[in-house]
Design goal:
The protein contains 11 helices and 13 strands. By secondary structure, the chain is an alpha/beta fold. The longest helix has 24 residues, at 230-253. It starts with a strand and ends in a 6-residue tail after the last helix. The model has no long low-confidence stretch (mean pLDDT 97). The structure holds zinc ion (ZN). Zinc ion (ZN) binds next to helix 2.
Length: 312
């Protein structure tokens, strides 16, 4: 079952149960003026818990008018096509570079199937296309009037080339997707989620600066929950983004293969997490939120694609 928590007037945080865990994948609901919005509806495998969370917040799924995507990765937007089929009033809002992957899911399904193989269905459930006429494209600078709020859309590439955040300047709440990295409740540790194929450290740095410049009171990150110490949080994220990137680059220089680099990165970084978390289960939880294999694959692709000169 999903866990639902009211976070402010007209806003709820939802924990979607994933692989038996709570507080790893988050969604948000906004309600007001006869509109109901979901920010990052999550994977297809948590469709039922998501619908349950809407009822638990006191609404009917049929009332959903807006589905806002920070980006189209499966843990954030995989359920979109199935939702759209069930929710007649819902319209989808996504960055123009992400929209094609919701309308035609074949590339996403193919690349995820290569990575996840037989675990695909268990992890991500159904991945259905969204009819183009239900998809509305966003660009940085757009303003969305949703559920009685005025949400600024800011373009924040780095984690994904089509990543956006939604900022309510009036309430000070910023719905950050993955631009703020992974920091699980109760563990004071920020992990850089750096999956292929779009990872871009320079773009991500600019996005961090942009988000900081908005001076929000709170970031709601997808993995997971509220971040209020925003400046130090981003400082630690940026430091790790580059430190891990340099580590992978060094290993590539030394002729290491992907599997070896994954093992080396785990050996190098896990002691710190272990020390901070003091809970062996935290390692598994961070791995579910952003696994080491994808992290290394993302960096390796980034270095090859964006900085081939640094590999010679
Ligand atoms: Zn994510």
């Amino acid at each position: 079952m999903a866990k639902v928590t009211q976070i402010s007037p007209g806003a709820w945080g939802v924990s979607l149960p994933f692989l038996g865990e709570q507080d790893i994948i988050g969604s948000y609901l906004l309600a007001g003026e006869n509109e109901l919005a979901i920010i990052d509806p999550g994977p297809g495998s948590t469709l039922e818990p998501l619908l349950g969370s809407i009822r638990e917040a006191g609404f009917e799924p049929q009332d959903v008018t807006h589905i806002l995507e920070t980006h189209v990765h499966l843990d954030h937007a995989g359920v979109t096509g199935s939702l759209i089929r069930l929710l007649p009033k819902a319209q989808v809002y996504v960055h123009s570079k992400g929209a094609p992957h919701l309308i035609d899911t074949s590339k996403v399904v193919a690349s995820a199937s290569r990575i996840y193989g037989e675990r695909m269905k268990m992890l991500w459930g159904e991945i259905e296309p969204t009819p183009a006429e239900r998809v509305h494209t966003l660009e940085g600078g757009d303003i969305l009037k949703v559920a009685g709020r005025r949400l600024e859309v800011h373009y924040t590439p780095g984690h994904a080339v089509h990543h956006v955040i939604f900022f309510d300047a009036h309430s000070g709440e910023l719905f950050a997707g993955d631009v703020g990295g992974v920091r699980l409740p109760g563990v004071d540790y920020v992990r850089p989620p750096t999956p292929p194929p779009d990872l871009d450290l320079e773009a991500w740095t600019e996005s961090i600066n942009l988000v900081k410049s908005l001076r929000s009171d709170v970031l709601y990150i997808a993995h997971f929950g509220a971040v209020r110490d925003i400046v130090p949080h981003f400082g630690r994220l940026r430091e790790k983004l580059y430190a891990w990137g340099d580590f992978v680059l060094d290993a590539m220089h030394n002729g290491k293969e992907e599997a070896e680099i994954i093992a080396m990165l785990i050996e190098w970084t896990q002691p710190e997490l272990q020390r901070i978390a003091r809970d062996p289960h935290a390692l598994q939880r961070y791995e579910i939120a952003s696994n080491y294999a994808m992290t290394v694959q993302g960096y390796m692709r980034y270095w090859r694609k964006k900085h081939p000169e640094r590999l010679t």
